[in-house]
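Lab notebook, bench 4. The sequencing result for the construct came back, and we need a structural model before the next group meeting so we can plan mutations. Quick request posted to the team channel:

Model the 3D structure of this chain.
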Amino acid sequence: MQDRENFDSQTVSFSIVMNLDRVIASRLRVSMKQENRTNNGLEELGTESVGRLLWKYIVPAIVGLITYALYNIVDRIFIGQFQGQTGLSALTIVYPALMIYFSSALLIGGGGSALISVRLGENNGREASRILGNAITMGLIISSAISVFGLLFVKETLLLLGANNEMLPYARDYYRILLLGIPFMALGFALTFTIRAEGKPRLAVYLMLVSSITNIILDPVFIIGFGMGVKGAAWATFIAEATAFFLAVRYYAAGKSILRIRTDDFVPRLNLCKQIFLLGLPACITDMMMGLQSLLMNLQLVKHGGTVAVASMGIIFAVYTMAQMPMFAIADGFQPILGYNYGAGNSARVRRTVLMVMLMIFGISILPIVPVVFRPDLFGRIFTSDAEVLLVATKGLRYFMFGLPFFGVFFCGTRYFQSIEKAGFANLISFSKPFVFFIPVLYISAWAWGLDGIWLAEPISLFLGSLLVSVLYFNTPSQKATGLPQDSIV
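Done. Here's the predicted structure in token form:
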């Protein structure tokens, strides 16, 4: 009888997935037709009201990224509830490595999209198409190398990340499967950046929604229905990432993009690859450093609190990541606007955009801070009923959330300098936060206050990083040195 119920549940779940995919694919085709009827999506970057543009680009990005964030969150909910603190700790241990690998998507997508936006602002579509082709080639080579290298050193990597004998079997099962999907993840996510850069934010969001919803539905099917545990969570993520990648490829292969890629555009050109690398490096470094910070924090957590502390960090990361998504969306959303107007010499619109973005950061950050600070236990219970883990997680979550507005300033600051082709400043910010601010604060505060000091390291270092962003911004011109006239603010 139980087997019959499980079979019925699995059949219904797969039916839902198939029907949902049909609905989303249909809506995706409608959106593509609407956005391809006109080139106004590109032209409006230099003419439309800055407020309306930010709304158009950022709101869809927020929806898409919050849904995308549910990848890890849903994994942790099901693993925490059905595998306990050991399974949750295993996912937390693997997380820093995945963040570092994800940086390859930001290297290619961030650098390629920033450069494409500037070239489109200069009305140079042919060069923008070459950039896209070279970005795809770079992404394929880098992500494949990461996948092969990671599979050769699975156990060594997990031990380096701090996995103990209790966590290792779970972490190994999860990590191996995700490594197979690194090329799909990197290229799929990078292509959403380039699609957004050509003035089609809705399409980029739909691709992310397809991937995220697929993952969310497959998680209970594989984890509970098939009894696959952490392996089920990993396979659900793999399939979801592959789905987004193939949909993005289908979009470009169908010739719907304003960027017309020719076969020779995929042949690496040293000057283009160098530009993509330099402009994408700040975002890549930021993500890698976040992974490094997570690694160092996990090692301190193992030292000061063991498996319970690491499991608590898994909950904190999940909630905090969800709260960060609007900040990522703001950065992703304003980058095409900044890049296009900087390339066109419209410095007044660049400054106006930055001002409105800063107001949005501080306004939006209040929304998650208030409920998390007053009732953190409500968020913790989503992931576990373990009283010991909840006690540690709720206290750490309060400390983390106070750094949210400073994270927005810091992260959007790196994207700002990336968008105006000031890679040196963007790299300085990316390197300074972990090495100059975070690591010293982490070890000093952990030595002085134990677990409380570990939780405090993140908000303190983000505050210092945001101060650096402010100093650099007010000492950097927002006009491209080309002598182009400035347009008035619309």
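The first helix runs from residue 2 to 36.
Will bring this to the meeting.
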